[in-house]
């Protein structure tokens, strides 16, 4: 088992010469795109917005990165234990005479379905957006909260 673990860790993984060439080709392509100003395709493209889900004793919290998006451009809904977040990031109007030199921020519609860890009370959910971060407070349903059981 120790030997298997040693050879599967990244530091000891055996690479063929072709793997090294593929990595070098990828780095050269990345450099060529950066020098040309072409938008770089990201491996996480399509997973937008990035979110964090946390919980405390009484709530789940979802925080989503949404810089430049107004509250009116967002749509939130809850079904069972799923939160749906969708909206649209619009291309800023630079004016008719403006010439774009670089546009790396993606624009367009997005949609994410987030599975909640447990049931929430949908009537008490609150959301707000400030400084490009959407914060959603989801109160846990009574059935989702821990209960003290008295031992007799």
From TrEMBL:
Keywords from the UniProt entry: Stress response
Alphabetized InterPro entries for the sequence: A-crystallin/Hsp20_dom (IPR002068), CS_dom (IPR007052), HSP20-like_chaperone (IPR008978), Small_HSP (IPR031107)
One Pfam family from the record: HSP20
Gene3D superfamilies noted in UniProt: 2.60.40.790
CS domain sequence ranges: 46-152
Domain SHSP: 41-152
Aminoacyl-tRNA synthetase listed as a keyword: no
Cited CDD domains: ACD_sHsps-like
Record keyword Aminoacyl-tRNA synthetase present: no
Family (UniProt): Belongs to the small heat shock protein (HSP20) family.
Protein name as it appears in the record: Heat shock protein Hsp20
Natural source organism: Desulfococcus multivorans DSM 2059
């Amino acid at each position: 088992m120790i030997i298997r673990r040693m050879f599967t860790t990244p530091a000891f993984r055996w690479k063929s010469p072709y793997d090294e060439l593929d990595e070098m080709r990828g780095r050269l392509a990345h450099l060529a795109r950066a020098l040309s100003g072409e938008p770089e395709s990201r491996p996480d493209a399509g997973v937008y917005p990035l979110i964090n889900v946390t919980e405390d004793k009484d709530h789940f919290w979802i925080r989503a990165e949404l810089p430049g998006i107004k509250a009116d451009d967002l749509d939130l809904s809850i079904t069972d234990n799923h939160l749906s977040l969708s909206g649209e990031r619009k291309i800023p109007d630079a004016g008719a005479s403006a010439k774009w030199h670089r546009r790396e921020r993606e624009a367009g519609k997005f949609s994410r379905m987030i599975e909640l860890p447990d049931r929430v009370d949908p009537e008490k959910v609150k959301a707000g957006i400030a400084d490009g971060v959407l914060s959603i407070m989801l109160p846990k349903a009574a059935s989702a909260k821990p209960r003290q059981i008295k031992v007799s």
